[in-house]
Design brief:
The chain is α/β, with parallel strands linked by helices. The protein has one domain: Aldolase class I (TIM Barrel, Alpha-Beta Barrel). It contains 14 helices and twelve strands. The protein has an eight-stranded parallel β-barrel, surrounded by five helices. Strands 9-10 form a two-stranded antiparallel ribbon. The chain has a two-stranded antiparallel ribbon with strand order 11-12. Helix 6 links the parallel strand 6 and strand 7.
Length: 369
């Protein structure tokens, strides 16, 4: 356990105005943005971890120009090749992949690539021996054993399974192994995916096909409404004030998700993490499905969660769930957690249970039926 200087990795919206604001706020930041990550919307033959229709569309020349602006601002660019991917034996596919990789490395000049497929990592490492490879969170690295399986490709960084934000022992093990092999650890901070989500693999496989993922978001949002403790259990939710907690464990990078959020959302969220403080609605910081507009009608007071992460139990998932229930009941009693669409909760068996379903919540719940 030791103190660790952190840096921030932010999502790319291919937006010069957003980048200018971030570069300006970097000047006085406690923790600066040192890296941006993104990909062309179509993802080429490999695809990526978002539906193509919810991310910004730019052409290759526009992407190269933006990348040069990042370099001028001393911000690295990591290119995403992170959809679940497998070579099928089709020589035409291999040719297409190699042409795409050549553009990413030789023309776009990415500083690193983020990949979820082990086979693709091996292919990239053979073709580009010195190119930094980041293991995507989509690969689902949960523990030391999982990370050990990727040592053959000499990765430079791992973004572990988002659950590890609430599983400190496994996180410490990955940090320790990473220290031995020169692998930095990067944690998601604004990713509200359900803890131990049963649909995680299917969701990413769906995205690998370039399909829309609305049904997966509907199921996720329904669960959060019915069991609001999930808002706190999500391992990918790290408050700006709690960044140093993870720095002490040995995490080196804090990753902000939100490629599908509106561009104007980015500077506010980045500034909160740059300064380790946010006096507002925690829901506003999270990369929740943008079509939900959750921050407009769901409120969870960020400052009221002081001390939450320090007391998070590690003995079992059940203990974590009960702990989050206790916090949500307390916040509800104090008016620090509420929904403004008419949805109300009542306390039952030390949990919050839906009492009345409001106009926005009912649309989500009806969609799930």
């Amino acid at each position: 356990m030791r103190n660790q200087e952190l840096s921030i990795t932010m999502p790319c919206h291919w937006n010069d105005s957003v980048l200018d604001k971030v570069l300006q706020s970097n000047l006085d930041a406690v923790t600066p943005v040192r890296e941006i990550y993104g990909v062309l919307a179509d993802g080429g033959p490999i695809k990526h971890g978002r539906s193509p229709d919810v991310v910004v569309q730019v052409n290759r020349q526009q992407a190269i120009q933006f990348r040069e602006k990042c370099r001028d601002g001393r911000i690295n660019f990591t290119y995403l090749l992170n959809a679940p991917f497998n070579f099928t034996g089709d020589l035409g596919l291999v040719k297409d992949v190699d042409a795409y990789l050549d553009w990413v490395v030789d023309e776009f000049k990415a500083d690193a690539v983020t990949i979820s497929s082990h086979k693709l990592m091996k292919h990239v490492r053979t073709r580009y021996p010195d190119l930094p490879i980041h293991i995507s969170t989509i690969a689902g690295v949960r523990n030391v054993k999982d990370l050990s399986e990727y040592l053959d490709v000499n990765p430079n960084r791992v973004v572990p399974h988002h659950d590890l934000g609430k599983k400190f022992g496994d996180l410490e093990g990955i940090v320790s192994l990473g220290d031995q092999h020169g692998i930095d650890v990067e944690l998601l901070a604004t990713e509200s995916c359900l803890f131990s989500c049963p649909n995680r693999v299917a969701h990413y496989q769906n995205l690998a096909c370039g399909s829309k993922d609305t049904p997966f978001h509907t199921t996720c949002n329904t669960t959060k409404l019915e069991k609001p403790r999930q808002l706190l259990m999500a391992g990918g939710v790290i408050r700006p004030e709690d960044m140093s907690f993870y720095g002490i464990i040995g995490v080196k990078h804090i990753k902000l998700s939100g490629r599908s959020k509106p561009a104007e959302w980015i500077p506010e969220v980045v500034e909160a993490y740059q300064n380790h403080s946010y006096d507002g609605n925690l829901i506003r910081l999270l990369g929740i499905d943008p079509s939900l507009n959750a921050e407009e009608w769901m409120h969870l007071d960020n400052k009221s969660l002081e001390g939450f992460i320090q007391g998070y139990p590690q003995e079992s998932v059940r203990a974590g769930a009960e702990y989050c229930d206790q916090w949500m009941v307390k916040l509800h009693q104090e008016g620090r957690f509420s929904l403004s669409d008419g949805t109300t909760y009542r306390e039952q068996n030390s949990q919050l249970v839906l009492n009345n379903i409001g106009v926005r919540a009912i649309k989500i719940l009806d969609s799930e039926k």
